[in-house]
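Hi P.,

Sorry for the delay on this. The queue was packed all week, but I finally got your sequence through. Input first:
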Amino acid sequence: TFYVTGLTPATDYTGEVRAQNSEGWSQAVRFTWRTRSALPAEVTSDPQTITQPINSTAMFNCAGRGEPMPGVTRRHDGLTVSSGNITTTPDHTQHTFTSTLTFHNIQRADNG
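Then the structure:
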């Protein structure tokens, strides 16, 4: 596996690969590749409505993709959610992410 970072979208690149052992170097194999264009941000899995008992934990999951990697903002009734614990896990090789918003010890006032 071979990874290169910091490339510009929609750009052609060339390179070469050689192998080496105790007998010396192989001939170079040249290759070219084109980076794909930027991928628009998209939510691929929306959080689901859940019902939980009072004093329990509520978790809301979502997933998405984009290149460059999009940020995740949780909103409720038009306002940014500032309580709870948000964990976002990116997968930069697949340009995807998963995100979980967790509320512990939920109360009736948390409804909505």
